[in-house]
Amino acid sequence: MFERYNKVQRAVLETTLHLIIDKELQATSMSLIAKESGVSTGNIYHYFSSKEDIINELYKAIVLFNGEFVTKNLNAADSVQEQFRRAWRSVIELGKNHPKGFRFIEQYSFSPYIYEQSKLEAYKGGWCGPMEKIYRQAIDQGLFVELEPHMMVQMHYGSIVYLLKSHQQNMLELTADVEEQALRSFWNAVSKEKGWNE
Q1: From CA 170, how far away is CA 188, in angstroms rounded?
Q2: Of 1.10.357.10, 3.40.50.2000, 3.40.980.10, 1.10.10.10, which CATH number belongs to 51-190?
Q3: Least crowded by CB within 10 Å, which of 25, 31, 102, 172?
Q4: pLDDT attached to residue 61
Q5: Is the pLDDT score of 86 beyond 80?
Q6: Sorting pLDDT into bands at 50, 70 and 90, what band is 49?
Q7: Which ranges of the sequence are annotated as binding DNA (predicted)?
Q8: CATH architecture observed for domain 1-48
Q9: Degrees, nearest 5: CA angle 125-131-133
Q10: 61 backbone dihedrals φ, ψ, rounded to 5°
Q11: pLDDT digits (tens, 9 = 90+) for 142-180
């Protein structure tokens, strides 16, 4: 998730993520980050100007990683439905395989700690933009009703979040069959015709 950073930055970001998920943001101080990461406070300040700076870099790093993860297997030559299925399956896989990153984004996307510039950069590098293009294609091809693509993506993502949270709390086993049922329901909810291909 933090491969593009140097060793010191990576240690700080990884430690901060673990601390925030385990102890919450307010309890995560610079001194605690230094202690847990093994990086001196002075060295941290060489790369990050403040705790807020670390949080924003962490946010951007996770969103960029998420975007690459979800879009890496998308192929414009595939049908819209196949792209739709593959993208949402990747979002689910992402949440399962990287639960701390998922929880961080879910908890802090609307936090005042996250600068507007960070949100803008994250939006451009994340997966929401590419997902909206798939929905726009579906509308243009007459497959989906003419609703705002951004709204549809967010509605469906809200359902994914609920499923992943239920899975993480052992309330629901998120099997391939359950995932397929969820994706079929998403498609059919906005489809002009109920045309989900098995």
Answers
A1: 27
A2: 1.10.357.10
A3: 31
A4: 93
A5: yes
A6: very high
A7: 29-48
A8: Orthogonal Bundle (1.10)
A9: 100
A10: -65, -45
A11: 999 999 999 999 999 999 999 999 998 999 999 999 999
